Amino acid sequence: SRATGKRCLRSQRNGQRIRREGDATLHRLFLIQGGEDRMVRTEQELKELLQQNESVTPALLDELLLHIGSTDPELRDGLIYPQLATYIASESFTIEEANRLFDFLLSGHGLMYRMGTSDATAVLTRSFSALALAELLVMDKSRHVLTQDQLDRLSNYLQTYLKQERDVRGFIDG
């Protein structure tokens, strides 16, 4: 709220609502399921957890995706993306998780996140969502978990992404 100097954003994601609260230095995300808020770790809390080589679970997968565009390069490049890529390539990665990942990455919270804007979080979210989609396609080449409809949808989204994306940075200086 304005009174506390914090901003609150609510949005939908695959039947789940996401609420972001915070200011420029601290963001806390909430997954809202069935009318109940489930607090998600801050970036610092997630970083500390991942530095302990925590195994990826379905709940942790959601958090990795919610922070995929972090402006913290250690968290994004050194922890989130490698964990995500390793998990996608693992035998424990299920078809259900592939579908959740696919849906998230093609949503307005992934590949098309705030398309047309050049703020760091939006640019990084879009570029790292594209990288995660590449990992998903590599895995699908051998395991065939995506349907032809999903692959067609992905093709359409990628064409739109390539037409609309103007900021192709994969990293942000400073």
Protein architecture, described:
Helices cover 49% and strands 14% of the residues. Strand 1 and strand 2 form a beta hairpin. The protein is an alpha+beta fold and 174 residues long. The chain contains six helices and four strands. A four-stranded antiparallel sheet has the order 1-2-3-4, with no helix packed on it. The longest helix is centred in the C-terminal third of the chain and has 24 residues, at 120-143. Mean pLDDT is 82; it is low at 1-16 and 21-35.
In short:
The chain is of the alpha+beta class and about 170 residues long. Helices cover about 50% and strands about 15% of the residues. The protein has helices at about 45-50, 60-65, 75-90, 95-105, 120-145, 150-165, and strands at about 5-15, 15-20, 25-35, 35-40.
Structural class, from helix and strand content? Answer: alpha+beta
Cα separation of the termini:
29 Å
Please give the share of residues in helix. 40-55%
The tally of beta strands, per DSSP, is 4
Count of helix runs: 6
Gross morphology is globular
Rg to the nearest angstrom? 16 Å
Q: Which residues form runs of ≥5 with pLDDT under 50?
A: 1-16, 21-35
What sequence of helices (H) and strands (E) makes up the elements?
EEEEHHHHHH
Biggest pleated sheet: 4 strands, antiparallel
Mean pLDDT: 82
**Beta-strand level of the residues, as a percent range?**
5-15%
The largest beta-sheet arranges its strands as: 1-2-3-4
